[in-house]
Structure prediction request, 154 residues.
Amino acid sequence: MVVSQIAPVVKTVEVNCSPEEAFRVFTEQLGSWWPTRTHSGGGDKVSSVTMECRLGGRVYETVVDGTEFDWALITDWEPPRRFAMDWSPSATPTASTHVEVRFEPTPSGSRVELTHTGWERLGDDALSHRNSYDEGWDPVLEDFVGVASGEATR
Prediction:
């Protein structure tokens, strides 16, 4: 089956901090806000989530026995404006999709826009994955907003 172009998932949130701070929380402090119980391979066995903050860096989870599972590879790194990554957080090898996150100043803080594309790479499962992420990014970004805005801690 040939999969035609599938619309990107685009999510935008506002946070009550500067773009520099929002970028830092999203990247350097990823493990402080990422909802591992619901959005990881290891669930309650995840001990940390790490982003290697550099071009070519990995994003990965570590479970309590020390095993690491890769989620992404950073393909663009432009702090504090944007970063992008090839995203494939699966225990079984699959094609990656692409996630770009942008940070822009607003009068009250920052606007953070996440754009998730590349669904066509997933073949017959592309549309179901896209629809799952369309819903799945909402609670992830909600947790980020809480921490970046100083309203919540994990």
About this structure: The chain has three helices and seven strands.
